[in-house]
Amino acid sequence: MPRPKIIVCDVNETLLDLAPLKKSVGKALNGREDLLPLWFSTMLHYSLVETLSDNYHSFGEIGTAALMMVAKTQGIDLEYEEAKAAIVTPLRSLPPHPDVVEGLKALKQNGYRLVSLTNSSAVGVETQFKNAGLIDLFEKRYSIDSLKKFKPHPDTYRMVLNDLDVQPEEVLMVAAHAWDLAGAENVGLQTAFVKRPGKTLYPNVPKPDYVVSDLKELVRVLKNQ
Amino acid sequence: MPRPKIIVCDVNETLLDLAPLKKSVGKALNGREDLLPLWFSTMLHYSLVETLSDNYHSFGEIGTAALMMVAKTQGIDLEYEEAKAAIVTPLRSLPPHPDVVEGLKALKQNGYRLVSLTNSSAVGVETQFKNAGLIDLFEKRYSIDSLKKFKPHPDTYRMVLNDLDVQPEEVLMVAAHAWDLAGAENVGLQTAFVKRPGKTLYPNVPKPDYVVSDLKELVRVLKNQ
């Protein structure tokens, strides 16, 4: 595999730890912290439902709607403003996983250009990166909100390729989500899966090019390639 | 609203009761019947991930993969063949909800032409309808497997319109899934939501034209229109 020039990082879960959301979402759902994966999966599903039926709301708005739905189907009373507060504020102040700052710095030092690509809004990810101390580590931030289509729509990855004027095989997509890597692989990008807690591969598509425990392992693996 | 000529019924959950799956999926997940909604949501999400990244597996294959993923993230050992057995066999022998046979017969008697449109495979839905005693109630069955794109992709609804040579506004889509109706509405179909247990509307899109408790209520509502 050729050495990638550009590393594109997904943001939520890949770089930032969703743990604080577990608490706030759990609180909104009467203590049912176990429902976090169902909420997240519902949000992801409806982001693609909107993409495929020519609708668009921000990831935060879809997350709020998804939380309302989970509450409703579980017989839990929840007001819209309460659902929104449970998601939007904590989402914007998530801490980075412990390996992230060191890992990103090492990747930069090793000559890779770093950009991010997220389903969060442009304003959202700017706030997220400021709060997490990651703002200066990336050359550029991309959000799907300029396209109004969510990952893994192929146009989202192509937007990055076109803007940077690079070929797919020169780019490595790094994500903790099998669905994100399936979309990147479809467009011809190299792919690296980061095994964050509760995340796993999707058995129906080819394995990513790299599977690592964290960004520090990614640095080592790329060096030894 | 004009009186619809054609009624298009979604199948899983809308006509057929998923309750037997709760048992088999729960058993595969060490008794965790509470994980059924997460499994179903993961399956739906990945059906759209495949659609958006130019992959295709049958709904049963995606359901099996999704069950493997849920097991893995919950730390439960599960073999592929065991996961498959937990889904495919029960999925093909789901009972109809109690209102379905009477409701469909009444719709036919009232002059509506009935067809079905499902994310299940053509072979799958034929077996499902035979086992549920619904096979003779429908003029035609449509599966997304001829397109290899899952609902709510607009092409799935347009396939039905083109094949029957009807206009969107002449058709009423009936489903227990907000995402299915969002896709149908996008293509211009009339929409009816059936409130099956654990199902709820998606707050970010317009309300369906009809919201009913079951098919018998749909019969009454259409008559009084």
Spatial extent as radius of gyration of chain A: 17 Å
> Strand arrangement, largest sheet of chain A?
3-2-1-4-5-6
Structural class of chain A: alpha/beta
| Whole-number count of domains of chain A | 2
The fold-level CATH name of the largest domain in chain A is Rossmann fold
Report the CATH superfamily of the largest domain in chain A. HAD superfamily/HAD-like
Q: Which protein chains are joined by the largest interface, and how many residues does each one contribute?
A: A-B, 42 and 42 residues
Q: Residue-averaged pLDDT of chain A, rounded? A: 97
* Largest β sheet strand count, sense and barrel closure of chain A: 6 strands, parallel
Helicity range of chain A: 40-55%
Which CATH architecture of the largest domain in chain A? 3-Layer(aba) Sandwich
Number of strands of chain A: 6
End-to-end separation of chain A: 9 Å
Family (chains A, B): Belongs to the HAD-like hydrolase superfamily. S-2-haloalkanoic acid dehalogenase family.
GO molecular function, one term (chains A, B): haloacetate dehalogenase activity
EC number (chains A, B): 3.8.1.3
Enzyme class (chains A, B): hydrolase
